[in-house]
């Protein structure tokens, strides 16, 4: 499976105050799931053909005080070493810490969604991992899965990474699809390519949904 490289200043997601024990944020070259743009709806929406993607997903109660932070912490702990591994390895990108297990490089983007009473977040794993060979999480709140090859529609925007803004963009995405030859086959989710402390107008955020021809 091929992956594109995506450069993000200051690493990806949350600084030391969010994740205990983190020493610093470092620049990194991050993998982005590979896709081909096969159509466009106006200037705003891309129809993308994605290759399969292996991910780590966390799930926390959506009504908790800070579900995004809690979900991120679980996944950060997983990639930092809370997984089945042979040695303790110092993690250098995007933060410096030491945890048991195998080091896993972070990739962009991060995917989030609300499903029922749960808030779910995904980190897409580097291309060398599959669902079969990815290190097993030590926390049962984290699971490994695979998104099969499929076509998705995406609308990109900058600025706020809030749920309220993404709801607006999801509605615009669905409106654009309603007037096209494509129809959604699932629930739209949010994709964030930049850390929340990045400059708002330089952020890349997306609302995205699986689609098929009508």
Secondary structure topology:
Layout: E1 3-8, E2 28-33, E3 35-41, E4 45-50, E5 53-61, H1 67-80, E6 88-91, E7 97-100, E8 110-115, E9 118-124, E10 142-147, E11 150-157, H2 163-178, E12 182-184, E13 189-192, E14 205-213
Descriptive account of the structure:
It is a single chain. 14% of the residues lie in helices and 40% in strands. The chain is mainly beta and 214 residues long. The protein has one domain: Alpha-Beta Barrel (Multidrug-efflux Transporter 1 Regulator Bmrr, Chain A), CATH 3.20.80. The strands form three sheets. Strands 3, 4, 5, 8, 9, 10, 11, 12, 13 and 14 form a ten-stranded antiparallel sheet that branches. The protein has a two-stranded antiparallel sheet with strand order 1-2. It is globular and about 50 Å long. The relative contact order is 0.21. The N terminus is likely disordered.
Oligomer: single chain
Low-confidence stretches: 1-28, 86-101
Corresponding CATH superfamily: Regulatory factor, effector binding domain
Summarize the amount of helix as a percent range: 10-25%
> What distance separates the N and C termini?
28 Å
């Amino acid at each position: 499976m091929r992956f594109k490289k995506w450069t993000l200043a200051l690493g990806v997601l949350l600084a030391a105050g969010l994740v205990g024990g983190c020493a610093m944020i470092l620049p990194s070259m991050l993998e982005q799931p590979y896709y081909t743009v096969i159509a466009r709806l106006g200037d705003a929406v891309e129809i993308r053909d994605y290759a399969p993607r292996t991910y780590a997903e966390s799930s926390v109660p959506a009504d908790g005080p800070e579900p995004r932070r809690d979900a991120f912490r679980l996944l950060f702990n997983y990639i930092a070493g809370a997984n089945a591994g042979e040695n303790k390895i110092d993690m250098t990108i995007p933060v410096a810490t030491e945890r048991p297990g195998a080091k896993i490089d972070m990739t962009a983007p991060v995917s989030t969604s609300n499903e029922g009473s749960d808030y779910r977040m995904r980190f897409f794993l580097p291309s060398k991992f599959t669902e079969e060979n990815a290190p097993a999480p030590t926390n049962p709140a984290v699971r490994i899965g695979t998104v099969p090859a499929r076509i998705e529609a995406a609308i990109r925007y900058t600025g706020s990474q809030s749920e309220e803004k993404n709801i607006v963009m999801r509605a615009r995405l669905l409106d654009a699809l309603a007037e096209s030859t494509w129809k959604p086959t699932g629930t739209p989710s949010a994709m964030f390519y930049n850390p929340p402390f990045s400059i708002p107008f330089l952020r890349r955020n997306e609302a995205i949904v699986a689609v098929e021809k009508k």
